[in-house]
Amino acid sequence: MPYQSPISPGRSWYEDSAGPRPEYAALDGDRTCDVVIVGGGFTGLSAAAHLAKAGANVVLTEAHRFGDGASGRNGGQLGTGQRAWAEEMEAEYGFSRAKALFDLAEEAKAHLIEFAAVNRIEIDYMPGQMSVAHKKRHVDDYKAHAEIMASRFGYSHISFMDARETAERLGSTAYFGGTRDTGTGHIHPLKLVIGTAKVAAEAGAQLFEQTPATGITSVGGKVNVTTPKGTITAEKCLFGVNAYGGALEPVSAAHIMPIGSFIGATVPLGADTKVLPGGEAVDDSRFVVRYFRKTRDGRLLFGGREIYAVNDPKDIHIHIRRQIAELYPDLRDVEITHGWGGYVGITVPRKPFVREVMPNVISIGGYSGHGVMLSNFFGKLYAETVSGNRDRLKLIEDLKIPPFPGGRRWRTPLLFLALNWFALRDRI
């Protein structure tokens, strides 16, 4: 029987196309180390790789298998900048800080591509991303954004597309305009997970799957992470579970909310398809965003259904096909070979959450759908912090991230109501 993640619904096309997926043993016995990392997604594995290469003694624990969470199951789009547009960051934080945050994100993009190349990780990188307006009133914002990025932030890779160009490049008349970014692209995320884990292990990091953390304490300058069959004692701890932390660490849980996002993969569309002839990835202007792209073998990967409740839908294929047909009527009967989901960690302002949640324990997450690029780099920034340079991570730590309202009891139903209100507005 093919492996099925116990924490994420469906089996992804990524799992069936990634090649060998090594398994790592579970922890059995106590360990002492310099740094303990809880969470084997992009953030944790990247941190482990960079720390181990720098000579640190690192132990990483993952409750299930590497890539079972959002890191191995996401849309694969890198994007540009932070989750919020640079001009929005400028309005909130001023130009110098907004520019520093944008430049940090650009470095994150370059780092990911370089890390894969240097370590010979084949991530199936394909260039290009389009952001498109699902309502006519948004078009002027996209046009202004392209101009601002070039004139104020020195990023000349974004160009404005009118309705005609948008239709030609998408192969669909469902959108009114948008932007095309030739300075970014999209990847096979599970291949990056597998490759990063291999780099970390070869550098000497001790990696353990099927090893849930059952408790974290920080007393007397030491951090203790308990697991079912052993305790890890360390000088420092990275808590990198993002949407999958549950109640393990209450400060992170108060600031990072899991929402479900679901993707379908079609059969290869063939060389004569009019869908995305340039091979770019796409995201749209809906609050409940739709995102889609073609793979190297011509499949359409389409993500467009988010849920804010704890129950997973059993009808991923039906809903994804319906949304595909809204944009591409000729694909209303297309065969969907895979349907899967996972949980994304979001924050109230949709900006990353980085905080020292207890002495020597730093939590990193809440990428809010922009984590493919940022999370890998934040793992590197955490490794810099351990070596004594916290300045760059501090740029993110200083962002204003309030907790979700309602406390533990009410925050999920309140978020459900709020985000479904925004989903309703997307249709009006």
Automatic annotation (TrEMBL):
One of its GO terms (cellular component) is cytoplasm. The lineage of its organism: Bacteria, Pseudomonadati, Pseudomonadota, Alphaproteobacteria, Hyphomicrobiales. PANTHER family: FAD DEPENDENT OXIDOREDUCTASE DOMAIN-CONTAINING PROTEIN, SARCOSINE DEHYDROGENASE-RELATED. Its EC number is 1.-.-.-. Keywords: Oxidoreductase. GO terms for molecular function: oxidoreductase activity. Residues 34-384 form the FAD dependent oxidoreductase domain. Gene3D superfamilies: D-Amino Acid Oxidase, subunit A, domain 2 (3.30.9.10), FAD/NAD(P)-binding domain (3.50.50.60). The gene is ordL. This is Putative oxidoreductase ordL. Pfam families: DAO (PF01266).
